[in-house]
Amino acid sequence: MPAWAPERALAALLCLVLAGAAGAQTADLVSTTAFRVCSDPAAWPASSEDGSGYENRIAELLARELDRRVEYVWYPMSTGFIRNTLNAARCDVVIGYAQDAETVLNTNHYMTSTHVLVTKADGPFADVAELSDPRLKDARIGLVAGSPPATHLARLGLLGNIKSYELFADRRYDSPPDMMIADLESGAIDVALMWGPIAGPMVKQRHPDLTAVPLLHEAAQPRLSYRITMGVRQGEDAWKRQLNSLIRRHQDEIDAILRDAGVPLLNDMGTELKPEG
């Protein structure tokens, strides 16, 4: 046996012990009596302090299956959200988080959706389904600053047409999605490029004079469709597996909640609308 082998074996054993202890400590952070959700109080239609968001309904569904009550920690979805909620052990799950986000441990995805083009249902842009449509060359376009469609508009030479809205804002005081919709209805802009899980429910539930068309035909990068997961703390693999099981067993019910809200659902590849049933 080489001279370093006993020391290497001892070091490996110590690492396993420490890892096990850290895993136990991490697991202990998850409440066994409440389904503790980290959420934005003013991010309707996703989440709302009055419980009217589709993420609120998904939380209620999962909590019921776990036989736990729902408890919220409210914090605006802006800089410091994860640090001050999930990582501070004040709550145990973020219901909506983009897949592959490095700040959380992602569950399996429960939704794939895409950006949409919102315009007046009886207007000249109502049937536009691609950003390369020639009619957009003369359109005033609302766009969230730094969002993926911006790259496509730059490639198409349309950046001179845009009116920009903030990406991060405390929506209790300043709501870019509502400002975009208000500008669209007033005629300040002709179309709005928005994230479908925000725009779809806004149009369905509050603005029936508008239409939201999923952007399914943009082949160039960056992609406009994304898979949405739940986020838990790094290292909480057992909790992640438990949530994965719940998502798998209740996917149809989750889909029904999202469709009822007005969220455009895509297949896993993001290439076409997800069939019902």
UniProtKB/TrEMBL annotation:
Alphabetically ordered keywords of this record: Signal
SMART domains given in the database record: PBPb
Stretch forming the signal peptide: 1-24
Domain of life the protein comes from: Bacteria
Domain Solute-binding protein family 3/N-terminal positions: 34-261
UniProt entry tagged with the keyword S-adenosyl-L-methionine: no
Keyword set includes Signal: yes
Name of the protein in question: Solute-binding protein family 3/N-terminal domain-containing protein
Organism (species): Rubellimicrobium mesophilum DSM 19309
